[in-house]
Design brief:
Strand content: 15-25%
Largest sheet: 7 strands, antiparallel
Helix content: 10-25%
Number of domains: 1
Number of helices: 2
Shape: globular
């Protein structure tokens, strides 16, 4: 049956739906300053809307390297103060942030010996993206940066 956020029982970062009480989903949230809008534009052209979708497609492919995604929400864009977020020191003030949720059945699949999301961060490191779309942050390199002063993407558990 379909898994999702409909009628779940919550426990930490696990979500149990009413059809699969024995198969929890481990839900995570991703935050990025890169425009990953899921525009749905698939035509082979170089329009900004297609390039936004290319960034989203690239990220979903990286997320799928370690596990079959059982839940994936389209990114929502919000204007947020970056003071409380885990972006690099070069990013201050209020900027557009793209936020998405993803869930897997296997706990710890994105981790490594350094952190819970260390493997996923390694996978994302230096992956090319298209910049200068709708970003408000000044991105110096057209890649996902997972550390340093230009860190533009991070992941954490969904907190209820």
């Amino acid at each position: 049956m379909k898994k999702g956020l409909y009628g779940p029982f919550f426990h930490g970062c696990k979500i149990y739906d009413k059809y699969s009480i024995m198969n929890p989903l481990y839900i995570s949230v991703g935050y990025t300053l890169v425009d990953i809008s899921n525009t749905g534009v698939l035509a082979a052209d170089e329009t900004p809307r297609r390039n936004q979708c290319r960034n989203w497609e690239t990220l979903t492919q990286v997320l799928g390297l370690r596990s079959q995604l059982m839940l994936l929400t389209s990114p929502e864009v919000m204007r947020l103060d970056l003071a409380e977020l885990k972006f690099g020191e070069d990013f201050k003030g209020t900027h557009l942030v793209w936020i998405f949720k993803f869930g897997v059945e296997q706990e710890g699949v994105f981790g490594n010996k350094y952190s819970k999301y260390g493997g996923l961060e390694q996978d994302c490191a230096s992956v090319p993206v298209i910049i200068n779309l709708n970003e408000t942050a000044s991105l110096l390199t057209p890649t996902f940066c997972v550390s340093g002063t230009q860190k533009n993407i991070f992941f954490q558990d969904l907190i209820f």
